[in-house]
Amino acid sequence: MDATGVLLLMVPALLAVVLGALFIPRILLVAYRKRLFDPVSDRKLHTRVIPRLGGISFVPIQCCLFALTVVLVFKFGIGSWGVQSWALIPHFALLFCGLLVLYMLGLGDDLIGISFKWKFFFQVVVASFFPLSGLWINDFYGLFSIESVPAWFGMPLTVFIVVLIINAINLMDGLDGLCAGLVGIGCLVFGLLFYFAGAYVHALFAFITTGAVIPFFYYNVFGVGHKKRKIFMGDIGSTTLGYSIAFLAISFIMNNSFIKPYYNNSIVVAYSVLLLPVLDVARVMFIRWRSGKPLYCADQNHLHHLLLRSGMPRKGVMLFMFAINLFYIIFNVLAVQVMNNNLILILNLLMWGGFYFVFSKIDKHQMVEQEEVGVLDPGIKETR
Question: Where in the chain are the domains?
Answer without folding.
Answer: 3-275
